[in-house]
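notes to self, project folder thing:

trying the whole complex as one job this time. last attempt i did each chain seperately and stitching them together was a nightmare. three parts in total, labels are on each line so i dont mix them up again. if this works i'll redo the older ones the same way
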Amino acid sequence: MTPKISLLAAAWLVLKKDWQIEWRTRARLTALIFFSGATLLLFSFAMGPDVTSLRAHAHGYLWLGLLFASVLSLGESFRIESENQALTGLVLTPVEPRAIFIGKVLGNASMLFVLSLVLLPITVGLYDVTLTRVPHLLLLVLFLGVLGISAPGTVYSAISANARARDVMLPLLLFPVLVPLLLAAASATKLTFQPDPQDQLGSWLKLLIAFDLIYLSVGFLVFPKIAEED
Amino acid sequence: MRALFAGLLVAASLAFADIAPFPEKPPPAVEPAPAIVEPAPAVEPAPAPAPAPLHPMGIEKAVGSGVIQGGWEYVYACYALAVIGVLGYGASLFVRRPKEQAS
Amino acid sequence: MPASIPLLLLLALAVMVVVHIAVPKTRTILWKLSAALGAVMLGLLMYLGMFYAPPEAFMSNVGRILYVHVPYIWMAFIAFLMNVGCAFGYLMKKSWVTDALAESSAEVGVLFGAVGVAMGSIWARPTWGVWWDWDPRLISTTVMLLSYVGYLALRSFTEDPERRATWSAAVGILSGVSLPITYYSVRWWNSLHQVQSSTASVDKTMGSVLLWGLATLLFFLFPFIVKRYEIARARQTAAMELPPLEAPRPEAA
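result (full assembly):
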C-alpha cells in the first residue's frame, strides 16, 4: 500500500506545479495584465473625463476588470490540464481530487491577487483614488475577493473546460453566482478608497469571509464528483 | 476533513446571522413606500375608475380607492400574462410530448 | 404560520410527483385532474382577483396584481427548491429519475420566474414609477433566474448523459447556495420592494384570494413538472441504451 499524501501536502504540490508552469512563460499573467489594464482604460474612456465621477466609481471598475480577467485566467487554468490529458493523469495519481481543488483554487487566487496588485497603480493613475487610507484592509479585501472568485470559478471552469462553447459557458455560469461577491468586494473597496464614517467595512468583510467559506466548502464537497467525470 | 468543512460552513452561516439576523416578529401589514408617486390629495371620496365595476361587498364606500387612481390596464396585462404563461407552456409541453406511450 | 406555507406547498408538490412516478396507474389521471382543477381555479381567480378582493389601501386596484405575481414567483422558488433537492439526491445516489426531475423543475422554474418577474415589472411601473429597481428581492431573483438559465444552457450543450447529470447537479447546488447569499447581501441596502407578502401581513379577504392563487398555480406546477419529466425521460432513453450507472471510482489504496 503506497503511503497516502496528506491533503494539504498534495494541494501544495498542485499549487507549486501550477506556479512553476506559470513562471516558465509568464504568458498567462502578462496577458491578464494587459487585458485588464486595457479594460480599465476603456472604462475611463467610456465614462468620460470627469475625474470626480471616475474616482467615485473606481471601486466598481477595478472589480469589473478583475472579474473579466478572471474568466480568462480560470479558463486557462484548466485548459492547460486538458492538453495531453493532464487532468486524467492528475486524477489517477494517489492524490485526492479535493487536493486538486484546493491547489487550483489557491493557484487561481494567487494569480488574480498578483494581477490586482499590478492593477492598483493603474487605478491610481486613471481614476485618482487614494490607496493609503487603510492599505492593509485594502489588501485583505483584494485577497478575500479573488479567493471568492476562484472558489466557484474553479468548479465552473473544471466543468466548462470540457463542455462545448466553453468560452461562453464559464461566464454564463459564473457571473450570476458572483453577484454577491462583486457587491461585497466593490463596496468594501470603496470604503477603503473613501472615508468610512459609519464603520461598515467590517460588515462587508464578514460577508466576504462568509462567501469564501461557503463556496470553498461547497466546492470541496462537489469537486470530486466533477473530477470523476473526466 | 468533512467535519472541518462542515464546521466552516456552520461558522459561515453564523457570520451571516450576525450581519442579517432573521426578523423576530412577523412583517407589518403590506404598506409599500414607493420613491416616486404622482402627487395626489391625501384623502378624498374619489369615485371608482370608469371601467371598474362596483365591489360586490360595497367595500370601496368604506375603504375609499387609495392614492393611485386607475391603472386597470396594468392589472389586465398581468392577468392576461398569467393565463398566457400557463397556456403557452402547456402548449409547448404538448408539442414536445414523447411520441410513444409505453403502457 | 406564514413561513411554513411555501414548505407545505413544496411538500404537497413532492408528494404528488412521487405518487405520479412511483404508482404507474396514476400516471394518466392525476395530472389531468390537476390541470383541469387548475384551469377552473384560474378562471375563478380572474374573478376573485379583479372583482372580489378589495382594493388595496394604498395602491388601490393596481394592488390586485398581487394575486398573480406572488403565486408565480413562489412557484418558481418551489421548483428551484425541488431542483436543489434533486441535485443533492443525484450526487448522493445516481439515478436517471432524479436527473430528469432536476431538468424538469429547472425549466418550469425558469418559466414561472420569468413570467413572475415580468408581472413584477409591470406592477412596478405605476407604483414605483420605474420598470426596474435594484433592491434585494429583485437582484436575488435576477441572479436566480440567470443561474438557472445557465444551468439549462449547460444541459443543452452537454451530450454525454452521465456527465450532463453530474455537472448539472454541481451547478444546481452552487446556484441554490447563491440564492440566500445574494438575498442577504443585498438586503441591507435600502429596499424599495414591499415587505414579504404573506397571509399574515395582509387582510383576510386578500389573504384568502392569495391562497387561492397559490393553490391554482400549484395545480398547474404539478402537471408541468411531471410532463416535462416524462419528456426528459424519453430523451434519456432515446439517447442511449441505459447501461447501469458507473459506481464511483474507488479511492486509490
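what i see at first glance: Chain A has a mean pLDDT of 87.
need to look closer tmrw
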